[in-house]
Amino acid sequence: MGCGTSVTTDNKRRRLTTAMKAAILIQRWYRRYIARLEMRQRYTWNIFQSIEYAGEQDQLQLSSFFSFMLDNFTQLNGNGPDLISHLLDPVVDPWSDRERQNMYEQITVPESYSGPHLTFPLTVSHTNALLSAFKEQQPLHGRYMLQLLHQTKKLLKQMPNVIHLSTPYAKEITICGDLHGRLDDLLLIFYKNGLPSAETPYVFNGDFVDRGKKSVEVIILLFAYQLLYPDHMTLNRGNHEDHLMNLRYGFTKEVMQKYKTHGRDILLLVQDVFSLLPIATVIDNKVLIVHGGISDMTDLDFLSSIERHKVLYCRSCTVGPVPFLDSFTALPVRQPPREELEWKQVVDLLWSDPKSQPGCSPNTFRGGGSYFGPDVTRRLLERHGMTLLIRSHECKQEGYELCHDGQVITIFSASNYYEEGSNRGAYIKLGRELVPRFFQYQVSRNTRKLTLTQRVNVAEGSAVRAVQEKLFSHRSELMAAFQQYDTSNSGCISVSEWALVVESVVRLDLPWRTLRPRLARLAPDGSIDYQSCFEDMGPGQPIPQVTPNLAETLYRYRTDLEIIFNIMDKDHSGQISIEEFRQTWHLFSAHLGVEVDDRAIDELAKSIDFNKDGSIDFNEFLEAFRVVHKLDVKDQQQGYPGNDLALAQ
């Protein structure tokens, strides 16, 4: 009996020991699995953020080019100021407020229109009708859109640059960050937190538009609630409440698609409204809310005194070369000292980012604004008797982030910003004690159906393909740099040499060694077959192929060229006239010091007007650069000096 009991006990112990070992092995495997997923999530996040900021840097360089044109050219063949104003000034508006009112009053709403009807002043029933209509994908008629913008402009004109709010007893103020045209996120906030009202006041901290597909609906709701509750609905300006940003990131195109008849008038009025948005909000004299951040120059008293609608902040960015105009050498934009200081401080409020190191330095990652350290935050808060800075401007995986010893909070309200499942959105509630409470959410259409691994795979695949496109668009430069290291012409270089070249050419601060397996193949000896960078390494749609030099350059800077085209296309018809084309080439040629007479420009315009309809669409516009490139190559082959208007090196 005793021996049997002993054997049974030993067997149980062995089984228990085996089970524990198995559990430990499973636990170790799971931890490694989660760690690998976390690593993939982190570098995917770095990819998305680096590419986003690189695009913003390109945008600021383009803005600087336009600023140079506005500030340094006074005459171009006797038509300088009018031409430049016509082409480049984003807020040229010949209509007075009274004329605008007469214009929208003359617009007839057809009986077939089934969307919401607005009368002013607005009531709760109007905002409820807007909510219901947008949930059902019903648009707001152009007449009401213009009328809403006109009323919003009148209200904003009466507001100061810095809004001061207070938290009455037992009331909380809700602060939301970037929405970027995500209507679903806005509706989810309203569902979870309550609709705007005297009992539920809100501060929306800029970047209402661009990137998302429902920017129009987002601003309609925000402006409508601001008109309904002007003391309880505050809208700060963000860096995307700007004409040139809207051209690049989609809001302009969205307006023209949704309002084909009245789109141009709506866009002009929207820019007026954006320019009048307040630039900061202060709660109980203790909490400062700005879109981007601050710098060591930020002076709230000074900012309270400027005429904010006259500060076109894109003109104050650091002037540098515009990449697709190789011979462009920028000169400093000379402005009166006060105007220059106003521009610099507004740029800092809208574009800056916090950093962990002390001090203040130019924000080279974005190309505008400043990096500000904890010491800069502490000094500004102490100077104004404040305790907290709330800002937005940066997507965070959890929807919010604290830094600078808790004195700076970043809040971001657009969930799934980079890709489905990439991040949560969040908002803050501040009560009388001014202790922030965070509320997170994620709009879930397909996310809940995916496992964690599937979500990571989707986001990572999208990010890697974006990097592959970057490599394709820099193919010529990369090949030339690779070949400098490949002295034996083997087609292979070391991993460290490959990573060094890619970083120096593409200029994205990414973990290239970690990404290497997704971007390039190894040779049998462990070196990298660098030509494999330009092959489609993964499943999905093939990466677009581009040929070296001009076509590659056009592909890389297609967005910049499209923005220039859209600025010339003042009526947003998708076409520019021969006269507009001629004037634009005069602008470029005068700046670059190249003599081009009208006859040559007319011949160029006729040669690319393929359908001979007297106007040029965007593809024909790109062809102009190809034609110039061909002429440039021909001149070089014949020994003539190259045409400085050519885009390719």
TrEMBL record:
InterPro entries assigned: Calcineurin-like_PHP, EF_Hand_1_Ca_BS, EF_hand_dom, IQ_motif_EF-hand-BS, Metallo-depent_PP-like, PPP_dom, PPP_phosphatase, Ser/Thr-Pase_EF-hand_contain
Molecular function terms, GO-annotated: calcium ion binding; iron ion binding; manganese ion binding; protein serine/threonine phosphatase activity
Keyword annotations of the record: Calcium, Hydrolase, Magnesium, Manganese, Metal-binding, Protein phosphatase, Repeat
Catalyzed chemical reaction(s): O-phospho-L-threonyl-[protein] + H2O = L-threonyl-[protein] + phosphate; O-phospho-L-seryl-[protein] + H2O = L-seryl-[protein] + phosphate
Domain of life: Eukaryota
GO biological process terms, semicolon-separated: detection of stimulus involved in sensory perception
Reported cofactor(s): Mg(2+); Mn(2+)
Enzyme's top EC category: hydrolase
Domain EF-hand: 473-508, 556-591, 596-631
EC number: 3.1.3.16
SMART domains according to UniProt: EFh, PP2Ac
Family, per entry: Belongs to the PPP phosphatase family.
Name this polypeptide is given: Serine/threonine-protein phosphatase with EF-hands
Name of the encoding gene: PPEF1
